[in-house]
User: What shape does this take?
Amino acid sequence: MKIFSIVVIILALALIIFNATKINFESPLEGNSTIALIGIVSGFCAIVLMLIFLVSKKIEEKTKR
Assistant: This one.
């Protein structure tokens, strides 16, 4: 499960980088820039969820002992 989580984090980082290149900084809330911003936020959400999952697995391992 740890490898899966790391792969998801790497894919989310790639999504963030890709969407950052699509933002028009002169008008960031119009057209495709809005979609890119939503993609960046969703990438950060995926990373946070995976980090929470990894921490919960570490806690679970320590409480089993």
Summary: The helical segments are 2-21, 32-64. The mean pLDDT is 94. The chain has two helices and no strands. The CA atoms of residues 5 and 50 lie 6 Å apart.
